[in-house]
Amino acid sequence: MKRKIYSEEHESFRDIVKRFIKDHIASDYSLWEKQGQVPTELYKLAGKQGLLCPSADEKYGGSGGDFLFSAIIIEELYRQGFHSVFFALHSDIAFPYISELGSAEQKEKWLAKCVSGENILALAMTEPNYGSDIANLQTRAEKKDNFYVLNGSKTFISNGQIANLVIVAARTSLDKEKPHKGISLFVVEADTLGFKRGQKLEKIGLHAQDTSELFFENCKIPTANMLGAEGTGFYSMMKSLQQERLVIAIGAAAAAKGCLDLTLQYVKERQVFGKPLSHMQNTRFELAEIATQVQLAESFLDDLIPRHMAREDIVKEVSMAKYWMTDMQSSVADRCLQLFGGYGYSLEYPIARQYVDARVQKIYGGTNEIMKEMIASRLM
Ligand SMILES: Cc1cc2nc3c(=O)[nH]c(=O)nc-3n(C[C@H](O)[C@H](O)[C@H](O)COP(=O)(O)OP(=O)(O)OC[C@H]3O[C@@H](n4cnc5c(N)ncnc54)[C@H](O)[C@@H]3O)c2cc1C
Q1: Is the CB of 131 under 6 A from ligand 1?
Q2: Which positions of the chain have pLDDT values less than 50?
Q3: Distance between alpha carbon 270 and the CA centroid of its chain, in Å?
Q4: Beta strands 165-171 and 212-222: pairing type?
Q5: What is the DSSP string of 206-265?
Q6: Which residues have CB under 8 Å from 348's CB, separation 6+?
Q7: Which atom of ligand 1 lies at the shortest distance from residue 159's CA?
Q8: Which of 241, 319, 364, when mutated, tests ligand 1's pocket best, judged by the most ligand atoms within 8 Å of its CB?
Q9: Nearest Cα to 366, choosing from 234, 241, 249?
Q10: What is the pLDDT of residue 113?
Q11: 74 — alpha (psi -120 to 50), left (phi > 0) or beta?
């Protein structure tokens, strides 16, 4: 069923995205999973077809589209199970830091190449000892003449190997009572002396994602690379999290829909006890419940996406969507996998990939426990 939030223009764009996935992602994806990353060339191909940063201004080579174009890219990648292609991190999570906080010179320097895919972005907030408690992060940035000297490390950074521009949150001052006030944001160019990439982390899923540690050892960043004013980084991060969490929720609902579609097809074909698996009452009830949850998720998103586009403050509602939809996605992937029996446990079947890739959605972008804290603090 077509969703009312999408116009014909959006649906035509969806066809372009589907074709791109078929031509440039589907057949090589298993190889990329073995290699632990997607090729940087994929970003350039996507850039050529207008699939990166769809909201970017025309003067940077973008199409000035609305957020719904981004939503379509996310939906198609997640529905089809290509979760490791982190175009959304690049286009919808990291890119807005530069397009919204950047000075005219910074935008001129970096944005066009983000749209073309020559620049690949990463966002580095998390540290080995500070994930949820981001206000206490320890990476230091000390001002010396026209530079800030960065020292510290980050972990779990998506696109950590392939990114050539990393937006880094670092501490420029410390007020022990209000540690969040001393955080600033920097664009670190990967060829800067003292910037080092650690190993790709081995994970239970997202096998084509190059999640990595990053190290900064007396890494000299020009003051011109600071994003926004000194000390305002925490506020910028909090502001951008509404979109980051909405992106995760959109992916979660689409992945759950993808699991449902795969399973509907399988249960019609699989014979058990002399009849199709789809005839068993348990199968019918499972799929009825799953379809209901997917429908509820889409309806909630159809309310939230336009409100987000109208720049409403919907932090509470988006936190609800992020936690509920990623929980739902994980449970749906598990229930659908069960209907595949042993085949569901085999990586040859896409449902297995949906299952392992779902798990992290409850953790990153703010854990689901942190989401509940955010909701509760806005209730009481
Ligand atoms: C595959 C992957 C990709 C990632 N990509 C990025 C990225 O690109 N950039 C980036 O900066 N980070 C990234 N992260 C990091 C991610 O955002 C963090 O892992 C996440 O924020 C949780 O932080 P933590 O791992 O330190 O867990 P912790 O903060 O140590 O939490 C451990 C547990 O304690 C719970 N907890 C913590 N505080 C509270 C509280 N106040 N109340 C109740 N429970 C609490 C948590 O919910 C969790 O269950 C990624 C992580 C993964 C796994």
Answers
A1: yes
A2: none
A3: 34
A4: unpaired
A5: -TT---EEEEEEEEEEEGGGEESSTT-HHHHHHHHHHHHHHHHHHHHHHHHHHHHHHHHH
A6: none
A7: 8
A8: 364
A9: 241
A10: 98
A11: alpha
pTM of the complete model? 0.98
Residue 244 among the catalytic residues: yes
Could you give the domains of the chain?
8-119 (1.10.540.10), 122-231 (2.40.110.10), 235-379 (1.20.140.10)
150 forms beta bridges with 141, 219
State the residue for tokens 């077509």.
Answer: 2
Tokens 């014979």 correspond to what residue?
271
CB 161 within 8 A of CB 221: no
Query: Cα of 134 to ligand 1 centre, how many Å?
Result: 9
Check pocket membership of 235 for ligand 1, CB cut-off 6 A. Answer: no
Residue 358 contacts by C-beta under 8 Å, 6 or more apart in sequence?
205, 252, 255, 326, 329, 330, 333
Q: Which of 97, 132, 136, 185, when mutated, tests ligand 1's pocket best, judged by the most ligand atoms within 8 Å of its CB? A: 132
Q: How many helices (H) and strands (E) does the chain have?
A: 12, 10
Q: Which of 75, 76, 127, 244 is catalytic?
A: 244
Q: Tell me the pairing of strands 140-144 and 195-200.
A: unpaired
What Cα–Cα distance (Å) separates residue 113 from each residue in 62, 100, 120, 128, 358?
10, 16, 8, 31, 31
91 lines ligand 1 (CB under 6 A): no
For atom 14 of ligand 1, which residue has the closest CA?
156
Cβ–ligand 1 contact at 369 (below 6 Å): yes
Buried residues in 12-39 as b, exposed as e (16+ CB within 10 A): ebbebbeebbeebbeeebeebbeebbbe
Pocket test for ligand 1, best of 95, 168, 362, 363 (most atoms within 8 A of CB): 363
Answer for the pair 151, 217: CB distance below 8 angstroms, yes or no: yes
Which bin fits 61, alpha (ψ -120 to 50), beta or left (φ > 0)? left
pLDDT, residue 2, reads 78
Closest ligand 1 atom number to CA of residue 129: 26
